[in-house]
Amino acid sequence: MEKRMKIPFNKPYIIGKELYYIEQAVQNGQLSGDGHFSKLCHSFLQDYLHADKVLLTHSCSAALEMAAILCDIAPGDQVILPSYTFVSTANAFVLRGGVPKFIDIRPDTLNMDENLIEQAITSRTKAIVPVHYAGVACEMEAIMRIAEKYGLLVVEDAAQGINAKYRDRYLGTIGDLGCYSFHETKNLISGEGGALAINNKNFLSRAEIIREKGTNRSQFFRGMTDKYTWVDIGSSFLPSELTAAFLYAQLEEIEKITKKRMLIWNLYLQRLKPLEKRGLFKTPFIPSHCTHNAHMFYLILDSLETRTKLISFLKNQGIMAVFHYVPLHSSPAGIRFSANRSGELPVTDMISSSLVRLPFYYSQTEQEVNFVCDRINQFFGIRA
Description:
Elements: H1 18-28, H2 36-49, E1 53-57, H3 60-70, E2 78-82, H4 87-94, E3 99-103, H5 117-120, E4 125-128, H6 140-150, E5 153-157, E6 165-166, E7 169-170, E8 177-181, E9 194-198, H7 204-211, H8 217-221, H9 241-251, H10 254-277, E10 290-291, E11 298-300, H11 304-316, H12 332-337, H13 346-354, E12 355-357, H14 366-379
Parallel strand pairs: 2-3, 2-4, 4-5, 5-8
Antiparallel strand pairs: 1-9, 6-7, 6-10, 8-9, 11-12
Helix pairs in contact: 1-9, 2-9, 3-4, 3-7, 10-14
């Protein structure tokens, strides 16, 4: 009889020098932000991603909020984004008085349907916010063409997209601004944490000011001004040096982490593809021009009922599988704050009720993946 396992949905991990670097940060005598390890992270990300400027933040939510300020979102300005995303994507702009205009997603990649963007544009539209779901790129060429045509800004929500590419460019470096997450559920982790990539040179100096509570502190310490004072709106968006120290150890191992996650992702695909061929569910779709980062593995089932039964069955087997986003357009705040006063988003509604995320974490073993897949086979009455 096969031994029962307990498999969590996610498991934080240490891969290298995280604890050593944290100790170094303490010994350096600076635990507040923008110290030695913050600077190392900035340089690493800028070089690796080929970005003009990358600034660490205390979360991806903070990076998105900085982006909304940089875009000069004012009350009544509309922002086009998918409804199938985390609340931070919309909340960052609502905090500035912006009005989300939710559009439907594609049934293949689950990203915003670029063919629906133009019809959503109004005289009040200020920005487009593509969300790269599961580390698979939105159709950025089409999105950038539309943005240029209508004079709109593009803010990439690449919370799940670190080290993934659209054609030959890293996600988060194509639009005017890109936002990353290093939350413990992401590929690279620091507990909480994020970063803002500034790809539009017009935003470079102001981004530093907004991140430093609206002060010119960074310029002052570089000797660019003789006064350190309040010059703009902003907030305290910096992470501590402890967070940066942990993150830098992870950045050093980015290729190793991605390679291991790809092995896990491909094992799931290999084991579950036969069931997909039987029409029992769909597995993730990766366009040929996109390089994904193995952020998650999900199944799209035929109904909410099947999804609910599968999650319950797996839980009883010690396996924590979960559903994902509840659509923002149908949430209480979404109804209150958005421009979607009527009408449905059929693909979003369908995916939201039928998608299940399987356990996925760096330290996951082949035995654990096989256990999950065997139990899914068992649920559908298939002998593995």
